[in-house]
Amino acid sequence: MLYxxxxxxxxxxxxxxxxxLAKLKKNSVEKNKQISESWExxxxxxxxxxxxxxxxxxxxxxxLIEIYMGDLVGESVYEKYGMxxxxxxxxxxxxxxxSVQVHPSDExxxxxxxxxxxEEMWYIIEADSSSEICLGFNQNINKEILLKSLNSKxxxxxxxxxxxxxxxxxxxxxxxxxxxxxxxLLAEVQNTSDITYRxxxxxxxxxxxxxxxxxxxxxxxxxxxxxxxTYKTEYxxxxxxxxxxxxxxxxxxRMVDFDKAIIRNYADTDSFTAYMCVDGDAAVxxxxxxxxxxxxxxxxxxxxxxxxxxxxxxxxxLLEISM
Length: 323
Fold this sequence. Notes:
Elements lengths: L9 E3 L7 H5 L12 E5 L1 E2 L2 E2 L12 H8 L1 H4 L1 H7 L5 E8 L5 E3 L3 H8 L6 E8 L4 E6 L5 H10 L6 E5 L5 E4 L5 E2 L4 E8 L5 E4 L15 H4 L12 E2 L7 E7 L4 E7 L3 E4 L7 E7 L1 E6 L2 E6 L3 E4 L5 E6 L3 E7 L1
Antiparallel strand pairs: 1-2, 2-5, 3-4, 5-12, 6-13, 7-10, 7-12, 8-9, 8-11, 10-14, 15-16, 16-23, 17-22, 18-21, 18-23, 19-20, 19-22
């Protein structure tokens, strides 16, 4: 019988990374070591998550799907995605801004890379009072204006900058230009894809020590050049229950905000469920087994499990993610 599965985090270090995640992951990371990203649940080639708890410890996610198929991911999910786990879940710790980038749609990614495109959602876990993200444009532009601004090094004049606070949610559909700003810790939900087109890197691309490949030519036909009235996702909270905060063709995300033990029932859901803890601590209990879930930890509930009891140690918030 399957049980709530925890996985070994896969750590990534980039030039913009911070120390917030390192402190939260202190049991598995050398003290004061910088972590840019913690890949919590991944089926990306070369970065496949491995189980860390229970009798399946040491088995990777792909091996689990080979054995358990629809019992793990859901029959409809298995029918559509086969052996590939469809989501990539991360925690991102940015001490400095990430590059300005964009992701292609499934259609373009399939044509160019024989892979899925990328759609993302961000939940802000921690941020400074001055922190902001870049998302979309502040006015309608076109390819010619974009290229001219890059040559003149004034792309920032056309970018939309959003002030943020803890609890904010932002959706990043394919084609929307974006960048995470400095001093931000967030949870990211995306479909399984590692395709990114970098457009601008705040000058780091001109320094031999920090330069990374740019993909302006590939990005030109991908970018949505329109400006929109609002970019932040508004949502409400139903205490001690689940509240929808994001739903698209690739995934669905709910906020579970609770301060007492609650039951979550999945009998009518033909999908796995993943929990990302964004605040607090809780125990996850089902089939007589219990696992703990602390801030910036993730757990996977196999599709065959119909009911889970969530028991908070204090006021807790979880992102509840399914297909």
